[in-house]
UniProtKB/TrEMBL annotation:
SUPFAM superfamilies: Alkaline phosphatase-like
InterPro entries the record matches: Alkaline_phosphatase_core_sf, DUF1501
Organism of provenance: Sphingobacterium suaedae
Protein name: DUF1501 domain-containing protein
Length: 498
Protein backbone atom coordinates (compact mmCIF):
# COMPACT_ATOMS: atom_id res chain seq x y z
CA UNK A 1 0.00 0.00 0.00
CA UNK A 2 2.87 2.32 0.86
CA UNK A 3 4.44 1.79 -2.58
CA UNK A 4 1.11 2.38 -4.34
CA UNK A 5 0.59 5.67 -2.49
CA UNK A 6 4.11 6.73 -3.43
CA UNK A 7 3.43 6.02 -7.10
CA UNK A 8 0.13 7.93 -6.97
CA UNK A 9 1.87 10.90 -5.38
CA UNK A 10 4.58 10.91 -8.03
CA UNK A 11 1.98 10.77 -10.80
CA UNK A 12 0.04 13.67 -9.28
CA UNK A 13 3.22 15.71 -8.94
CA UNK A 14 4.16 15.11 -12.58
CA UNK A 15 0.67 16.11 -13.72
CA UNK A 16 0.83 19.33 -11.68
CA UNK A 17 4.24 20.14 -13.15
CA UNK A 18 2.81 19.90 -16.63
CA UNK A 19 0.11 22.54 -15.95
CA UNK A 20 1.69 25.02 -13.52
CA UNK A 21 2.82 28.43 -14.78
CA UNK A 22 6.24 28.09 -13.15
CA UNK A 23 6.92 24.82 -14.97
CA UNK A 24 5.66 26.31 -18.23
CA UNK A 25 7.98 29.31 -17.96
CA UNK A 26 10.96 27.26 -16.80
CA UNK A 27 10.77 24.30 -19.14
CA UNK A 28 8.70 25.24 -22.15
CA UNK A 29 9.74 28.73 -23.32
CA UNK A 30 12.30 27.26 -25.71
CA UNK A 31 9.55 25.23 -27.31
CA UNK A 32 7.13 28.07 -28.08
CA UNK A 33 8.78 28.72 -31.42
CA UNK A 34 8.62 25.02 -32.17
CA UNK A 35 4.89 24.98 -31.34
CA UNK A 36 4.28 27.83 -33.77
CA UNK A 37 6.38 26.17 -36.45
CA UNK A 38 4.58 22.89 -35.85
CA UNK A 39 1.27 24.65 -36.42
CA UNK A 40 2.47 26.00 -39.74
CA UNK A 41 3.83 22.63 -40.83
CA UNK A 42 0.62 20.87 -39.79
CA UNK A 43 -1.24 22.85 -42.42
CA UNK A 44 1.06 21.34 -45.02
CA UNK A 45 0.70 17.84 -43.61
CA UNK A 46 3.53 16.13 -41.72
CA UNK A 47 2.84 12.59 -42.92
CA UNK A 48 2.51 11.23 -39.41
CA UNK A 49 -1.25 10.66 -39.43
CA UNK A 50 -3.66 9.22 -41.92
CA UNK A 51 -6.89 10.93 -42.98
CA UNK A 52 -8.62 9.40 -40.00
CA UNK A 53 -6.00 10.75 -37.56
CA UNK A 54 -4.63 7.28 -36.83
CA UNK A 55 -1.06 6.87 -35.59
CA UNK A 56 1.15 5.95 -38.59
CA UNK A 57 4.20 4.02 -37.36
CA UNK A 58 5.76 3.87 -40.82
CA UNK A 59 5.85 7.66 -41.15
CA UNK A 60 7.69 7.95 -37.82
CA UNK A 61 10.15 5.13 -38.58
CA UNK A 62 13.73 6.56 -38.56
CA UNK A 63 14.92 3.65 -40.75
CA UNK A 64 12.66 4.24 -43.74
CA UNK A 65 14.72 4.29 -46.99
CA UNK A 66 16.12 7.73 -47.82
CA UNK A 67 17.80 9.23 -50.88
CA UNK A 68 21.49 10.24 -50.75
CA UNK A 69 22.91 13.47 -52.19
CA UNK A 70 23.35 11.86 -55.61
CA UNK A 71 22.83 8.37 -57.06
CA UNK A 72 25.42 6.10 -55.45
CA UNK A 73 26.99 3.04 -56.99
CA UNK A 74 26.75 1.07 -53.73
CA UNK A 75 23.53 0.29 -51.88
CA UNK A 76 25.09 -1.66 -49.02
CA UNK A 77 28.45 -2.26 -47.34
CA UNK A 78 30.20 -5.33 -45.95
CA UNK A 79 33.19 -4.28 -43.85
CA UNK A 80 35.67 -7.01 -42.88
CA UNK A 81 37.86 -5.74 -40.03
CA UNK A 82 40.82 -7.84 -38.90
CA UNK A 83 41.07 -6.73 -35.27
CA UNK A 84 44.67 -6.51 -34.12
CA UNK A 85 46.05 -5.37 -37.50
CA UNK A 86 47.40 -7.91 -40.02
CA UNK A 87 50.88 -7.45 -41.47
CA UNK A 88 50.81 -5.95 -44.95
CA UNK A 89 54.40 -7.15 -45.42
CA UNK A 90 53.30 -10.81 -45.30
CA UNK A 91 50.21 -10.33 -47.48
CA UNK A 92 50.19 -7.64 -50.17
CA UNK A 93 53.17 -5.26 -49.91
CA UNK A 94 56.04 -7.24 -51.46
CA UNK A 95 59.47 -5.87 -50.47
CA UNK A 96 62.41 -7.94 -51.77
CA UNK A 97 64.86 -5.36 -50.39
CA UNK A 98 63.67 -6.28 -46.91
CA UNK A 99 64.94 -9.84 -47.48
CA UNK A 100 68.47 -8.51 -47.87
CA UNK A 101 68.25 -6.54 -44.61
CA UNK A 102 66.96 -9.46 -42.55
CA UNK A 103 68.57 -9.61 -39.07
CA UNK A 104 70.59 -6.44 -39.65
CA UNK A 105 70.34 -3.61 -37.09
CA UNK A 106 67.62 -1.09 -37.90
CA UNK A 107 69.03 2.21 -39.29
CA UNK A 108 68.84 5.09 -36.83
CA UNK A 109 66.98 7.19 -39.42
CA UNK A 110 63.93 4.92 -39.09
CA UNK A 111 63.81 5.32 -35.31
CA UNK A 112 64.54 9.02 -34.77
CA UNK A 113 61.45 10.87 -33.56
CA UNK A 114 59.19 7.83 -33.98
CA UNK A 115 56.89 6.32 -31.37
CA UNK A 116 56.26 2.60 -31.21
CA UNK A 117 53.99 0.61 -28.94
CA UNK A 118 56.71 -1.81 -27.74
CA UNK A 119 59.97 -1.41 -29.69
CA UNK A 120 62.81 -0.03 -27.58
CA UNK A 121 66.45 0.55 -28.39
CA UNK A 122 67.68 -0.72 -31.77
CA UNK A 123 65.66 -3.63 -33.22
CA UNK A 124 66.68 -5.91 -36.07
CA UNK A 125 65.11 -5.74 -39.52
CA UNK A 126 62.73 -8.60 -40.30
CA UNK A 127 62.45 -9.93 -43.84
CA UNK A 128 59.06 -11.05 -45.23
CA UNK A 129 57.94 -14.37 -43.76
CA UNK A 130 56.06 -15.38 -46.91
CA UNK A 131 56.60 -16.07 -50.59
CA UNK A 132 55.09 -13.65 -53.11
CA UNK A 133 53.94 -13.92 -56.72
CA UNK A 134 51.90 -11.82 -59.15
CA UNK A 135 48.38 -12.84 -60.10
CA UNK A 136 45.62 -11.92 -62.52
CA UNK A 137 45.69 -9.49 -65.41
CA UNK A 138 46.42 -6.74 -62.91
CA UNK A 139 49.63 -8.45 -61.79
CA UNK A 140 48.82 -7.84 -58.12
CA UNK A 141 51.35 -9.14 -55.60
CA UNK A 142 49.85 -11.62 -53.12
CA UNK A 143 51.66 -13.96 -50.74
CA UNK A 144 51.30 -17.71 -50.51
CA UNK A 145 49.31 -17.14 -47.29
CA UNK A 146 46.25 -16.35 -49.48
CA UNK A 147 46.12 -18.91 -52.33
CA UNK A 148 42.34 -18.60 -52.76
CA UNK A 149 42.29 -14.80 -52.68
CA UNK A 150 44.91 -14.65 -55.43
CA UNK A 151 42.18 -15.86 -57.83
CA UNK A 152 40.00 -12.75 -57.36
CA UNK A 153 42.59 -9.95 -57.30
CA UNK A 154 41.20 -8.51 -60.54
CA UNK A 155 37.98 -7.70 -58.66
CA UNK A 156 39.87 -5.68 -56.04
CA UNK A 157 41.45 -2.25 -55.62
CA UNK A 158 44.38 -2.12 -53.18
CA UNK A 159 45.22 0.99 -51.18
CA UNK A 160 48.88 0.36 -50.40
CA UNK A 161 49.79 3.55 -48.49
CA UNK A 162 47.03 4.08 -45.93
CA UNK A 163 48.23 5.83 -42.77
CA UNK A 164 46.84 6.69 -39.35
CA UNK A 165 47.98 8.65 -36.29
CA UNK A 166 47.03 6.07 -33.64
CA UNK A 167 49.35 3.19 -32.65
CA UNK A 168 47.28 1.58 -29.86
CA UNK A 169 44.46 -0.79 -30.74
CA UNK A 170 41.51 0.84 -28.97
CA UNK A 171 42.02 4.42 -30.24
CA UNK A 172 43.09 3.17 -33.69
CA UNK A 173 39.96 1.02 -34.04
CA UNK A 174 37.80 3.93 -32.92
CA UNK A 175 39.51 6.18 -35.46
CA UNK A 176 39.08 3.60 -38.22
CA UNK A 177 35.35 3.18 -37.54
CA UNK A 178 34.20 6.55 -36.18
CA UNK A 179 36.70 9.06 -37.60
CA UNK A 180 37.86 9.98 -34.09
CA UNK A 181 40.18 8.33 -31.58
CA UNK A 182 37.92 9.48 -28.72
CA UNK A 183 34.67 7.98 -27.54
CA UNK A 184 31.33 9.50 -28.44
CA UNK A 185 31.34 9.66 -32.24
CA UNK A 186 28.99 7.57 -34.41
CA UNK A 187 30.44 4.58 -36.26
CA UNK A 188 30.48 4.60 -40.05
CA UNK A 189 27.73 1.97 -40.08
CA UNK A 190 25.54 4.29 -38.00
CA UNK A 191 26.24 7.20 -40.34
CA UNK A 192 25.27 5.07 -43.33
CA UNK A 193 21.98 3.86 -41.83
CA UNK A 194 21.22 7.41 -40.67
CA UNK A 195 21.74 8.67 -44.20
CA UNK A 196 20.13 5.87 -46.20
CA UNK A 197 17.78 4.05 -43.83
CA UNK A 198 17.17 0.36 -44.48
CA UNK A 199 15.46 -1.54 -47.28
CA UNK A 200 14.12 -4.29 -45.01
CA UNK A 201 11.73 -3.24 -42.26
CA UNK A 202 11.98 -6.65 -40.58
CA UNK A 203 15.75 -6.58 -40.00
CA UNK A 204 18.13 -4.03 -38.47
CA UNK A 205 19.78 -1.65 -40.90
CA UNK A 206 23.20 -2.26 -39.31
CA UNK A 207 24.24 -5.77 -38.24
CA UNK A 208 27.50 -6.77 -36.49
CA UNK A 209 29.06 -10.26 -36.49
CA UNK A 210 32.19 -11.21 -34.52
CA UNK A 211 34.62 -14.14 -34.64
CA UNK A 212 37.95 -15.09 -33.13
CA UNK A 213 36.66 -15.50 -29.59
CA UNK A 214 36.78 -11.85 -28.50
CA UNK A 215 35.34 -8.46 -29.40
CA UNK A 216 37.59 -5.61 -30.61
CA UNK A 217 39.76 -3.77 -28.08
CA UNK A 218 37.64 -0.65 -28.47
CA UNK A 219 34.55 -2.63 -27.45
CA UNK A 220 31.06 -2.07 -28.77
CA UNK A 221 31.76 1.63 -29.30
CA UNK A 222 33.09 0.75 -32.77
CA UNK A 223 29.53 -0.02 -33.81
CA UNK A 224 27.84 2.52 -31.53
CA UNK A 225 25.68 5.42 -32.70
CA UNK A 226 27.44 8.13 -30.65
CA UNK A 227 25.37 11.31 -30.72
CA UNK A 228 23.06 9.96 -33.43
CA UNK A 229 19.75 8.48 -32.23
CA UNK A 230 20.41 5.01 -30.83
CA UNK A 231 18.23 3.34 -33.47
CA UNK A 232 21.21 3.68 -35.82
CA UNK A 233 23.65 1.67 -33.70
CA UNK A 234 24.79 -1.77 -34.82
CA UNK A 235 22.86 -4.83 -33.66
CA UNK A 236 25.22 -7.67 -32.74
CA UNK A 237 24.09 -11.10 -33.89
CA UNK A 238 25.69 -14.49 -33.28
CA UNK A 239 26.51 -17.26 -35.73
CA UNK A 240 26.38 -19.85 -32.94
CA UNK A 241 23.28 -20.59 -30.86
CA UNK A 242 20.38 -18.15 -30.93
CA UNK A 243 21.31 -15.34 -33.35
CA UNK A 244 19.98 -12.79 -30.84
CA UNK A 245 19.62 -13.39 -27.11
CA UNK A 246 16.01 -13.80 -25.94
CA UNK A 247 14.77 -14.01 -29.55
CA UNK A 248 12.06 -16.50 -28.51
CA UNK A 249 9.00 -15.54 -26.47
CA UNK A 250 8.81 -16.85 -22.91
CA UNK A 251 6.43 -19.72 -22.26
CA UNK A 252 2.83 -18.57 -22.26
CA UNK A 253 3.54 -15.38 -24.22
CA UNK A 254 1.88 -15.61 -27.63
CA UNK A 255 2.38 -13.32 -30.62
CA UNK A 256 -1.04 -11.70 -30.20
CA UNK A 257 -0.39 -10.88 -26.56
CA UNK A 258 3.04 -9.43 -27.38
CA UNK A 259 1.51 -7.37 -30.22
CA UNK A 260 -1.04 -5.90 -27.82
CA UNK A 261 1.65 -5.08 -25.26
CA UNK A 262 3.85 -3.34 -27.86
CA UNK A 263 0.87 -1.38 -29.21
CA UNK A 264 0.13 -0.11 -25.71
CA UNK A 265 3.78 0.83 -25.08
CA UNK A 266 4.05 2.59 -28.44
CA UNK A 267 0.88 4.57 -27.77
CA UNK A 268 2.41 5.91 -24.55
CA UNK A 269 5.69 6.65 -26.32
CA UNK A 270 3.79 8.45 -29.11
CA UNK A 271 2.20 10.76 -26.53
CA UNK A 272 5.65 11.38 -25.05
CA UNK A 273 7.07 12.19 -28.48
CA UNK A 274 4.20 14.59 -29.29
CA UNK A 275 4.95 16.42 -26.04
CA UNK A 276 8.76 16.63 -26.09
CA UNK A 277 9.80 15.77 -29.69
CA UNK A 278 12.78 13.77 -28.40
CA UNK A 279 14.21 11.66 -31.27
CA UNK A 280 15.18 8.97 -28.77
CA UNK A 281 11.46 8.36 -28.23
CA UNK A 282 11.12 7.60 -31.92
CA UNK A 283 14.10 5.25 -31.54
CA UNK A 284 12.34 3.45 -28.72
CA UNK A 285 9.16 3.04 -30.80
CA UNK A 286 11.17 1.77 -33.78
CA UNK A 287 13.17 -0.63 -31.61
CA UNK A 288 10.06 -2.22 -30.09
CA UNK A 289 8.67 -2.71 -33.58
CA UNK A 290 11.95 -4.06 -34.89
CA UNK A 291 12.32 -6.51 -32.01
CA UNK A 292 8.83 -7.86 -32.71
CA UNK A 293 9.56 -8.34 -36.42
CA UNK A 294 13.04 -9.76 -35.83
CA UNK A 295 11.58 -12.69 -33.89
CA UNK A 296 10.26 -14.02 -37.19
CA UNK A 297 12.79 -12.67 -39.71
CA UNK A 298 16.12 -13.18 -37.92
CA UNK A 299 15.98 -16.96 -37.32
CA UNK A 300 15.19 -17.46 -41.00
CA UNK A 301 17.93 -15.26 -42.49
CA UNK A 302 20.54 -16.36 -39.93
CA UNK A 303 20.02 -20.06 -40.63
CA UNK A 304 22.84 -21.12 -42.96
CA UNK A 305 22.09 -24.85 -42.63
CA UNK A 306 19.58 -24.60 -45.46
CA UNK A 307 22.18 -23.31 -47.93
CA UNK A 308 23.09 -25.80 -50.70
CA UNK A 309 26.16 -27.97 -50.24
CA UNK A 310 28.17 -26.22 -52.96
CA UNK A 311 27.83 -22.94 -51.00
CA UNK A 312 29.17 -24.57 -47.83
CA UNK A 313 32.03 -25.98 -49.89
CA UNK A 314 32.73 -22.57 -51.41
CA UNK A 315 32.90 -20.74 -48.04
CA UNK A 316 34.15 -23.59 -45.86
CA UNK A 317 31.25 -23.06 -43.47
CA UNK A 318 30.21 -25.25 -40.54
CA UNK A 319 26.64 -24.53 -39.37
CA UNK A 320 26.35 -24.04 -35.63
CA UNK A 321 29.92 -22.84 -35.22
CA UNK A 322 31.19 -19.33 -34.55
CA UNK A 323 33.59 -18.63 -37.40
CA UNK A 324 34.65 -16.01 -39.89
CA UNK A 325 33.49 -18.32 -42.68
CA UNK A 326 29.97 -18.55 -41.27
CA UNK A 327 29.90 -14.78 -40.83
CA UNK A 328 30.93 -14.16 -44.45
CA UNK A 329 28.04 -16.31 -45.66
CA UNK A 330 25.68 -14.54 -43.26
CA UNK A 331 26.90 -11.18 -44.58
CA UNK A 332 25.89 -12.19 -48.09
CA UNK A 333 22.49 -13.37 -46.89
CA UNK A 334 21.92 -10.13 -44.97
CA UNK A 335 22.73 -7.73 -47.82
CA UNK A 336 20.63 -9.96 -50.08
CA UNK A 337 17.74 -9.24 -47.72
CA UNK A 338 18.29 -5.47 -47.82
CA UNK A 339 20.43 -4.88 -44.71
CA UNK A 340 22.36 -1.69 -45.32
CA UNK A 341 25.63 -2.22 -43.41
CA UNK A 342 27.15 -5.52 -42.23
CA UNK A 343 30.25 -5.29 -40.03
CA UNK A 344 32.47 -8.34 -39.46
CA UNK A 345 35.15 -8.23 -36.76
CA UNK A 346 37.65 -11.09 -36.64
CA UNK A 347 39.87 -11.00 -33.56
CA UNK A 348 43.42 -12.39 -33.29
CA UNK A 349 45.67 -10.45 -35.70
CA UNK A 350 48.09 -8.87 -33.21
CA UNK A 351 51.36 -10.54 -34.28
CA UNK A 352 53.91 -9.47 -31.64
CA UNK A 353 55.78 -12.76 -31.31
CA UNK A 354 55.16 -13.34 -27.61
CA UNK A 355 53.96 -16.91 -28.26
CA UNK A 356 53.39 -19.25 -31.24
CA UNK A 357 49.77 -18.09 -31.69
CA UNK A 358 50.77 -14.45 -32.30
CA UNK A 359 54.02 -15.09 -34.17
CA UNK A 360 54.34 -13.71 -37.69
CA UNK A 361 55.63 -17.00 -39.13
CA UNK A 362 53.31 -19.46 -37.32
CA UNK A 363 50.11 -18.07 -35.81
CA UNK A 364 49.74 -15.44 -38.51
CA UNK A 365 49.79 -18.08 -41.24
CA UNK A 366 47.04 -19.99 -39.41
CA UNK A 367 44.87 -16.87 -39.17
CA UNK A 368 45.29 -16.34 -42.91
CA UNK A 369 43.98 -19.85 -43.56
CA UNK A 370 40.83 -18.97 -41.58
CA UNK A 371 39.95 -15.97 -43.75
CA UNK A 372 41.40 -16.78 -47.19
CA UNK A 373 38.69 -19.09 -48.48
CA UNK A 374 35.60 -17.35 -47.02
CA UNK A 375 36.51 -13.78 -48.03
CA UNK A 376 37.28 -15.04 -51.54
CA UNK A 377 33.97 -16.91 -51.59
CA UNK A 378 32.14 -13.76 -50.49
CA UNK A 379 33.38 -11.82 -53.52
CA UNK A 380 32.65 -14.72 -55.90
CA UNK A 381 29.20 -15.35 -54.41
CA UNK A 382 28.18 -11.69 -54.54
CA UNK A 383 29.32 -11.51 -58.16
CA UNK A 384 27.48 -14.65 -59.29
CA UNK A 385 24.26 -13.28 -57.73
CA UNK A 386 24.62 -9.84 -59.34
CA UNK A 387 25.13 -8.22 -55.95
CA UNK A 388 28.78 -7.17 -56.17
CA UNK A 389 28.05 -4.13 -58.34
CA UNK A 390 25.87 -2.65 -55.61
CA UNK A 391 27.70 -3.99 -52.54
CA UNK A 392 30.91 -2.32 -51.35
CA UNK A 393 33.26 -4.81 -49.66
CA UNK A 394 36.05 -3.33 -47.51
CA UNK A 395 38.90 -5.28 -45.84
CA UNK A 396 41.60 -4.05 -43.46
CA UNK A 397 42.88 -3.52 -39.94
CA UNK A 398 43.42 -0.47 -37.73
CA UNK A 399 47.11 0.06 -38.64
CA UNK A 400 50.05 -1.82 -40.15
CA UNK A 401 53.11 -3.67 -38.86
CA UNK A 402 56.74 -2.56 -38.72
CA UNK A 403 59.47 -3.80 -41.09
CA UNK A 404 61.54 -4.28 -37.93
CA UNK A 405 61.31 -7.25 -35.59
CA UNK A 406 59.74 -6.42 -32.26
CA UNK A 407 62.21 -6.30 -29.38
CA UNK A 408 60.00 -5.61 -26.40
CA UNK A 409 61.93 -3.91 -23.58
CA UNK A 410 64.98 -3.91 -25.88
CA UNK A 411 65.32 -7.68 -25.75
CA UNK A 412 64.68 -10.35 -28.38
CA UNK A 413 61.23 -11.88 -28.41
CA UNK A 414 60.85 -15.69 -28.12
CA UNK A 415 59.16 -15.77 -31.56
CA UNK A 416 59.20 -13.58 -34.66
CA UNK A 417 56.83 -10.64 -34.48
CA UNK A 418 56.20 -7.10 -35.74
CA UNK A 419 55.14 -4.05 -33.73
CA UNK A 420 52.25 -1.67 -34.48
CA UNK A 421 52.96 0.75 -37.32
CA UNK A 422 51.06 3.91 -38.30
CA UNK A 423 52.93 5.09 -41.40
CA UNK A 424 51.76 2.51 -43.93
CA UNK A 425 49.30 -0.35 -44.26
CA UNK A 426 47.06 -1.92 -46.88
CA UNK A 427 43.28 -1.84 -47.27
CA UNK A 428 41.42 -3.38 -50.20
CA UNK A 429 37.97 -2.64 -51.58
CA UNK A 430 35.79 -4.46 -54.10
CA UNK A 431 32.42 -3.93 -55.79
CA UNK A 432 30.07 -1.01 -55.23
CA UNK A 433 31.58 1.31 -57.85
CA UNK A 434 35.23 0.51 -57.10
CA UNK A 435 37.58 0.44 -60.09
CA UNK A 436 38.81 -3.13 -59.99
CA UNK A 437 42.21 -4.57 -60.70
CA UNK A 438 44.38 -1.65 -59.57
CA UNK A 439 46.85 -0.87 -56.80
CA UNK A 440 46.89 2.72 -55.61
CA UNK A 441 49.77 4.10 -53.57
CA UNK A 442 53.27 2.82 -52.99
CA UNK A 443 55.55 2.47 -50.00
CA UNK A 444 59.35 2.78 -49.88
CA UNK A 445 61.62 -0.17 -50.60
CA UNK A 446 61.18 -1.67 -47.13
CA UNK A 447 57.49 -0.81 -46.62
CA UNK A 448 58.12 1.70 -43.85
CA UNK A 449 56.25 4.73 -45.23
CA UNK A 450 54.17 5.75 -48.21
CA UNK A 451 56.03 7.54 -51.00
CA UNK A 452 53.06 8.08 -53.33
CA UNK A 453 49.28 7.83 -53.21
CA UNK A 454 49.13 8.24 -49.44
CA UNK A 455 45.58 7.91 -48.08
CA UNK A 456 44.39 8.86 -44.61
CA UNK A 457 41.59 7.20 -42.67
CA UNK A 458 39.43 10.24 -43.47
CA UNK A 459 40.17 9.75 -47.19
CA UNK A 460 38.98 6.14 -46.94
CA UNK A 461 35.76 7.30 -45.25
CA UNK A 462 35.20 10.06 -47.81
CA UNK A 463 35.55 7.52 -50.61
CA UNK A 464 33.16 5.04 -49.00
CA UNK A 465 30.53 7.75 -48.52
CA UNK A 466 30.98 8.94 -52.12
CA UNK A 467 30.30 5.43 -53.42
CA UNK A 468 27.08 5.43 -51.38
CA UNK A 469 26.00 8.76 -52.86
CA UNK A 470 27.15 11.27 -50.22
CA UNK A 471 29.33 14.36 -50.38
CA UNK A 472 31.24 13.80 -47.14
CA UNK A 473 31.57 17.55 -46.53
CA UNK A 474 27.79 18.06 -46.68
CA UNK A 475 26.75 14.87 -44.88
CA UNK A 476 26.36 16.26 -41.34
CA UNK A 477 24.41 16.03 -38.10
CA UNK A 478 23.79 18.97 -35.77
CA UNK A 479 25.11 18.32 -32.27
CA UNK A 480 26.09 20.70 -29.47
CA UNK A 481 25.56 23.72 -31.66
CA UNK A 482 27.59 22.73 -34.70
CA UNK A 483 27.40 20.34 -37.65
CA UNK A 484 29.46 17.16 -37.20
CA UNK A 485 30.53 14.82 -39.97
CA UNK A 486 32.26 11.44 -40.20
CA UNK A 487 35.38 12.96 -41.79
CA UNK A 488 35.60 15.77 -39.20
CA UNK A 489 37.32 18.67 -41.04
CA UNK A 490 39.48 16.52 -43.33
CA UNK A 491 39.20 13.84 -45.99
CA UNK A 492 39.48 13.73 -49.77
CA UNK A 493 37.93 11.40 -52.31
CA UNK A 494 40.45 8.83 -53.59
CA UNK A 495 39.50 9.42 -57.20
CA UNK A 496 41.91 6.81 -58.59
CA UNK A 497 39.91 3.88 -57.20
CA UNK A 498 36.41 5.17 -58.04
Amino acid sequence: MKDINKLIKEAQQKQLQAVTRRHFLKECVAGIGGIALGGLLANCGDGRQGNDGAFDLNALNPLIPKSPHFPGKAKSVIYLHMAGAPSQLELFDYKPALHKLHNQPCPESLLAGKKFAFIRGVPKMLGPQATFAQYGQSGAWVSDHLPHFSKVVDEVSFLKAVHTDQFNHGPAQLFMHTGSARLGRPSIGSWVTYGLGSENSNLPGFVVLTSGGKTPDAGKSVWGSGFLPSVYQGVQCRSKGDPVLYIADPEGMGRDLKRSAIDAINAVNKEEYDTFKDPETLSRIAQYEMAYKMQVAVPEVMDIAKEPEYIHELYGTEPGKESFANNCLLARKLVEQGVRFVQLFDWGWDSHGTNPADSIDLGFRNKCREIDRPMTALIMDLKQRGLLEETLVVWGGEFGRTPMQENRDNSDMPFLGRDHHTDAYTIWMAGGGIRNGISYGETDEIGFAGVSGRASVHDVHATMLHLLGFDHEKFTYEFQGRPFRLTDVEGNLIQAVV
